[in-house]
Write a structure and sequence with these properties.
Strands 3-2-1-4-5-7-6 form a seven-stranded mixed beta sheet, sandwiched between helices. 37% of the residues are buried. It is globular and about 40 Å long. It has helices at 3-10, 17-29, 38-52, 66-74, 91-100, 102-105, 116-119, 138-149, 176-190; strands at residues 56-60, 80-85, 109-113, 128-131, 155-159, 194-199, 205-210. α3 (38-52) packs parallel to α4 (66-74). By secondary structure, the protein is α/β, with parallel strands linked by helices. Helix content is 43%, strand content 18%. α8 (138-149) links the parallel β4 and β5. The chain is built from nine helices and seven strands; from the N terminus they run αααβαβααβαβαβαββ.
């Protein structure tokens, strides 16, 4: 953590002990632990949920569950999160921390294992969708969401939308991850059904509102 990151951490509410433990276990047990949302982004997600006041949230890409717990904390009574993760090896860690957080989130998280492209269309419509799955599939997630998962006033929030700055560079042949994100960003920009803003927080968040 550099000086600026430390300053920011010192001037927002502290990370609770459960999330600290989840962050630590993720770094000890999981490949590419940097994919975890972390304290700053988690606090932002919680506050966005409190501001938007969704009743139903879809998360594409559970990873180890940090972001789902943060969003669940921001939900009002009766709200729920459907979170989908394709990697079944991560199911145990996320489920463990969902159980440990139960007193604070009161059964608000519904965990699914499988492809979001297969599972999400059967889950109804949502007020907020947090996209943090396979970057190659971002365009398909967007098409799916706009086809049947959102309504006027829904929000989509896409993570890693700057992709380490690669989106502003020439994409090497065969780099489907960067191209997927660039295509997603183009689709949003060209879609007159939505308005959006890109927040340069961490690796970038694209905040999209359905008109």
């Amino acid at each position: 953590m550099d000086d600026l990151e430390r300053y920011i951490a010192d001037h927002i509410p502290p990370e609770d002990s459960l999330l600290t433990a989840l962050d630590r276990e993720t770094h000890l047990r999981v490949i590419q632990p940097r994919m975890i949302s972390g304290h700053l982004q988690g606090q932002l997600l919680k506050m966005l949920v409190q501001m938007i006041t969704p009743q139903r949230i879809l998360e594409i890409g559970t990873f180890t569950g940090y972001s789902a717990i943060c969003m669940a904390k921001g939900l009002q009574a009766g709200g729920e999160i459907h979170t989908i993760e394709i990697d079944d090896e991560l199911e145990e860690i996320a489920a463990k921390y969902f159980r440990e957080a139960e007193q604070n989130i009161q059964g608000r998280i519904i965990q699914h294992i499988g492809s979001a492209l297969d599972l999400a269309p059967g889950l109804g419509t949502f007020d907020l969708i947090f996209i943090d799955g396979d970057k190659r599939e971002y365009p398909q997630y967007y098409e799916m969401a706009m086809r049947s998962l959102v309504h006027s006033g829904s929000y989509l929030l896409a993570d890693n939308i700057l992709w380490y700055g690669k989106v502003a560079e020439q994409t090497p042949a065969g780099d489907r991850f960067t191209e997927g994100i660039k295509q997603f960003n183009r689709m949003v920009t060209e879609d007159d059904r939505v308005e959006n803003v890109i927040l340069p927080l961490r690796d970038g968040l694209n905040l999209i509102r359905v008109k």
